[in-house]
């Protein structure tokens, strides 16, 4: 039996539409539309694509998008000043500083400078603390997208065993915490984990978030399991012509699709969901900061 494809792009479009509706409602109360500011330091071509997509989707949802692009040799002090300016600007509701930052900039210091009320990436100590403590707050986008797609596909994930591969602050750790919050039984694997294939074989839900093309093989995945592939890797694709590339995830899609229960494709899976959750967080941040009610169930 072949796995059901989870169409992240379609679910993301639904969430975008709801965010657009809520944004239009907010605009009536605020006298302006919600606004997301994205800061990109350096000219990494992959980051460039993501930042452009974020800008386009923000505008398509009827929100304002600010993009601040600076060269890779921008000083840490200048980045901190940019963040301070966005914190102080009452017209800005959400701030996202694209990771990774150049080596000479301390990412923790930059994240720490973002006002928690505008932390639509969910990365500040305040947001992370609220997540750990189970208090309401802005949740990281990729992890929220993973949980939402898992629930759409499988229904309640309570009691399911989840193996998250990767423990980054941006993806792995918060994904584990969000599934735990949903009463799943969660294991976090990383580069020191022993016998990863055997561990993954125990999982009802597998979340590869490593950055290694097609690392999770077909025989690692239990028949009927759900694979939420976070990895986004650009690899050479000579079959498409000289110098061409294509995107693959951290899961070997062709091997897994034969027997898994569900799988998210790359592209078209978790990536578009990340942006949808970012738009949703921007609407939530705008509403909270101005004490405006959002539609029920938003
Ligand atoms: N779809 C989307 O929207 C998003 C996709 N991504 C993609 O997800 C991937 C992960 O991103 P991110 O979390 O930021 O990456 P990081 O590089 O910050 O973290 C990678 C994690 O993978 C672990 N790891 C490395 N090698 C192995 C291994 N051989 N076996 C098991 N674990 C290993 C590392 O372990 P250790 O801690 O021990 O070093 C680390 O915890 C990337 O491909 C990135 O492009 C990222 C964000 C959003
Ligand atoms: N502070 C911060 N927050 C992030 O959330 C963050 C970040 N830094 N740094 C980089 C990663 C990566 N990331 C993606 C978002 C969308 C797609 C996306 O939309 N992908 C499309 C395809 C895009 C393409 O074609 O290249 C898809 O998978 O279908 C991918 C990756 C967010 N990240």
UniProtKB/TrEMBL annotation:
Record pathway: One-carbon metabolism; tetrahydrofolate interconversion
Keywords: Amino-acid biosynthesis, Histidine biosynthesis, Hydrolase, Methionine biosynthesis, Multifunctional enzyme, NADP, One-carbon metabolism, Oxidoreductase, Purine biosynthesis
Pfam families: THF_DHG_CYH, THF_DHG_CYH_C
Ranges for domain Tetrahydrofolate dehydrogenase/cyclohydrolase catalytic: 6-121
The keyword Oxidoreductase belongs to this UniProt entry's keyword annotation: yes
Superkingdom per UniProt: Bacteria
One cellular component term from this protein's GO annotations in UniProt: cytosol
Reactions this protein catalyses: (6R)-5,10-methylene-5,6,7,8-tetrahydrofolate + NADP(+) = (6R)-5,10-methenyltetrahydrofolate + NADPH; (6R)-5,10-methenyltetrahydrofolate + H2O = (6R)-10-formyltetrahydrofolate + H(+)
This enzyme's EC code(s): 1.5.1.5, 3.5.4.9
InterPro entries listed in its UniProt record: Aminoacid_DH-like_N_sf, NAD(P)-bd_dom_sf, THF_DH/CycHdrlase, THF_DH/CycHdrlase_cat_dom, THF_DH/CycHdrlase_CS, THF_DH/CycHdrlase_NAD-bd_dom
Residues given in the record as NADP(+) binding sites: 166-168, 232
One GO BP: methionine biosynthetic process
UniProt GO MF annotations: methenyltetrahydrofolate cyclohydrolase activity; methylenetetrahydrofolate dehydrogenase (NADP+) activity
Start and end residues of each Tetrahydrofolate dehydrogenase/cyclohydrolase NAD(P)-binding domain: 140-287
Protein family membership: Belongs to the tetrahydrofolate dehydrogenase/cyclohydrolase family.
HAMAP family on file: THF_DHG_CYH (MF_01576)
NCBIfam families reported in the protein's UniProt record: PRK14186.1 (NF010783), PRK14188.1 (NF010785)
Stored PANTHER family: C-1-TETRAHYDROFOLATE SYNTHASE, CYTOPLASMIC, C-1-TETRAHYDROFOLATE SYNTHASE, CYTOPLASMIC-RELATED
Protein role: Catalyzes the oxidation of 5,10-methylenetetrahydrofolate to 5,10-methenyltetrahydrofolate and then the hydrolysis of 5,10-methenyltetrahydrofolate to 10-formyltetrahydrofolate.
Quaternary structure (record): Homodimer.
Protein name, entry field: Bifunctional protein FolD
Organism: Maricaulis virginensis
Gene field: folD
